[in-house]
């Protein structure tokens, strides 16, 4: 599923709090009490990219230039160790690789102390 297909920018803008100054009429007219919007409702629809980082390796430019089709580079992660889950580049937990149908998937092993529960409703 392509996350961009689910993004409805018009709806997101309509749900933004008007206190951000997006409504020119509201700033020129007398203040009117408006119901507060639940910001977490809007945040739940913001797409993010999850990636699974296998590991990394430091190489010199010379070593990079010498890489070929059958080259092997040792990574800084032990075989079988859980891999890092990143949300938009920020580490949020660890997972194992699984097969889901014809695709790879990830099985969450642990999540970091991020307050992800605050977005649940």
Automatic annotation (TrEMBL):
UniProt keyword terms in alphabetical order: Cell membrane, Chemotaxis, Flagellar rotation, Membrane
Residues covered by the Flagellar motor switch protein FliN-like C-terminal domain: 43-111
InterPro entries found in the cross-reference section: FliN-like_C, FliN/MopA/SpaO, FliN_T3SS_HrcQb, SpoA-like_sf
Superkingdom of the source species: Bacteria
Name of one Pfam family that matches: FliMN_C
Membrane topology: Peripheral membrane protein
Location of the protein in the cell: Cell membrane
PANTHER family in the cross-refs: FLAGELLAR MOTOR SWITCH PROTEIN FLIN, PTHR43484
Family, per entry: Belongs to the FliN/MopA/SpaO family.
Protein name (database record): Flagellar motor switch protein FliN
Organism for this UniProt entry: Ideonella azotifigens
